[in-house]
């Protein structure tokens, strides 16, 4: 009888110590917002999607180089880069002749401008 009481007590303790909290419940779901920077976030987008034409010198009718931080910053501030990559008009859209950039990449460039066009 003692053993049965002990077993029932242990089962009761184990059952009450369990929760339905998942690991996600224990981790703060609020993302840490980091500033978007040219070197970490924007340069890879430009290198993978724009440099084939916007090199130095520009080729295939490109009007400007996007090779450096200053080039890309100037393109955002003065040359309408965000309008070009965000456009739905295929005649205005960049990359020229290619598919529109995925929205998540466009959003990174927009957020970079919002964050102050940080280099690093």
Describe the structure.
With 120 residues, the chain is mainly α. The protein has a domain at 38-114. Helix content is 50%, strand content 0%. It contains six helices and no strands. Helix 3 packs across helix 6 (103-114). The protein is elongated, with a radius of gyration of 26 Å.
Task: Provide a quick synopsis of the model.
The protein has 120 residues and is mainly α. It is built from six helices and no strands.
Key phrases:
single chain, 6 helices
Q: Total number of β-strand segments?
A: 0
Assembly state (oligomeric): single chain
Which runs of at least 5 residues are low in confidence (pLDDT < 50)?
A: none
The number of helices is 6
Q: Topology as H/E string?
A: HHHHHH
Structural class: mainly alpha
Secondary-structure topology with pairs:
Elements: H1 2-17, H2 23-26, H3 38-49, H4 69-78, H5 81-86, H6 103-114
Helix pairs in contact: 3-6
